[in-house]
Amino acid sequence: MDKASIIGCLEEIAVLLELKGENPFKFRAYENGARALETLEENFETLIDEKRLTDVSGIGAALAEKIETLYKTGKLDYYDKLKASVPAGVLEMLEVPGLGAKKVRVFYEKLKITSLEELKEACEAGKIAELPGFGAKSQDNILSGINHLEAYRKRYMWATVEPQVEAVLTGLRALPEVELAECAGSFRRKLETVGDLDFLVASEAPEPVMDWFTRMPEVEKVTGHGTTKSSVRLEGGLQMDLRVVPKAQFFFALHHFTGSKEHNVKMRQRALSQGFSLSEWGVKAVHEDHPAPIQEVDSEEELFQLFGLHYIPPELREGVGEVDYASHDALPKLVKPEDIRGVFHNHTTASDGKNTLEAMVAEAERLGFEYLGIADHSKSSFQANGLSEEKLLEQLKAIRKLNASKQYKTHVFAGVECDILKDGSLDYEDAVLEELDYVVASVHNALTLDEAAMTRRIIRALEHPCTTMLGHLSGRLLLKREAYTVNIPKVIDAAIANKKIIELNASPKRLDMDWRYWHKAADRGLLCSINPDAHSIEQLKNYRYGVYCARKGWLQKCSVFNARPLKEVSAFLRG
DNA sequence: GCCGTTTTCGGCCCGACTGTTTTCAGTCG
Questions:
Q1: Nucleotide minimizing C1' to CA distance for residue A54
Q2: Of these four, A282, A395, A415, A544, which has the most CB atoms within 10 Å of its CB?
Q3: Residue A292 has pLDDT above 60, yes or no
């Protein structure tokens, strides 16, 4: 069984134990174990082979043994028995907002309800309201929750919600009662997809702020309306929460609601180790004989300083070691959007782009790029109007001519997004590829190869002397299409060994290679190219989303190929 | 079930909100 499935299995064990009313710390240990595997920086297989699973913080003897059994046999008696003891439909009831393990257990034990369907019927028949501890209101909320489950489950691409966030922030900041306003949560951490939006306001007069928020024209339903917290659901299902706090608490709350949960746990543990308890409300002394000094902060920087930490940018707050790094002043100086000097992997009307070569270069110049790489599709990508050898060489000529004319300040590199064929060979003869300045090699077909074959295929393309960089490594389309099965660590190894670049495709629906792999890979010398994969002049600006993910991947300017000046880039491409 | 320059037991983050109660449990973030 692979790592992802094992993580899923541990998570399910945790839920099942919770449903059975087990010791909360026991099921939390399974959750912690699953998370430890998820954020593993070392190779999972190596850890198992060398029997070093228990070296991972959060995995002890019992979990290590279960993980090993799952890995080797794909089965686990403990899990099978546990699963058999709880009807399958009980789990899906947990998805309803407001329902947790305890309540679901009551439905199951008192009313023998074992599915969402039956729960809905019970609500409609008024049976839930009769249960002790429940009433008409709970019953209504459960029913409404079931009916809106689809909307609650939905996630959104970061870029999709960005304009809505800007609009709400602008509206909030325009209110006279609002001193400060931010959007916290996964949006602020620049996670590739977000589930809901958490707004935070500093104000001494919350009521008018709450009124404005709950009366926004896009609001479909107000699901909570208090003096410190309100929740709304917009048309289309997007959830937004707003919290209002006094200014003195704002930065504690901002830090808390920016999260992640894992980051907050680490921060609280650090605070406790220094005798303080940290929360969204501020910081308190744990022991009364050791009173805390007045702890007010005017920024998040000051908050981190209270605990001897350097400022941790929101993108890094995923609980993957950033607190330790911050305590040793060892955090990376993250790459910034303005560091980007040009972009590779862009399309024109020659293949499936919307704008001509000239229009793309003109826009690149307007954006201040020193260089622009054109990489249209290769001949096998029929669906994308891939270029024949003749057309490709024609475009190459046009690019050389454009550069010679000095019509634009932006230098144009002639490249191609070359299909990696099923056997790992490239889509043109070497003689053609050698004419170009660079080659982005990407997989576009035969996406269902098994992991070994797909990994071999991509590594073979990386070993080709003409390949400059690997395009969208996993092929995922966020919220739409899963990544194809490929052993990413092995591909990274091959890229490093062959001195090839891996792209961070900045299209908001790709963001591929995933930010979770970059930190370790870049430490080992892997170069990144942040490419917008632009199919129009508007999409050239999408490189920004790639920079955000690069920052989540701890990347510094020195690891980003297209943060280098033209001269260095040209020298690299000439080899 | 995990963890430990307070290490083999006794902790494990914590507080608001909701709906139900009449002092609180469950859920959530």
A1: B2
A2: A415
A3: no
